[in-house]
Amino acid sequence: MITRAAVLWERGQPLSVEDVELAPPGPGEVLVEIKAAGVCHSDLHPAHDDWPIRTPIVLGHEGAGIVRDVGDGVTQVKLGDHVVLCWAPACGSCPYCLEGRAVLCERLDRTTYRNKLPSGATKLRARGQDIAHFLGTACFAQYAVVPEEGVVPVSVGVPFEALATIGCAVVTGVGAVMTAARATRGSSVAIIGAGGVGLNVAQGAAMLGCTPIIAIDRRPAPLAIAREFGATDTIESPPKLADAVRDLTSGRGADFVFDTVGTPQTLADALSAARKGGTVVLTGLSRVDAVGTLQMFPFVMQEKRLVGSAYGSGRPPEDIRRLIEWFQEGRLKLLELVNRTYTLDQVNEALAALADSAGARGIILL
Question: pTM for the complete prediction?
Answer without folding.
Answer: 0.94
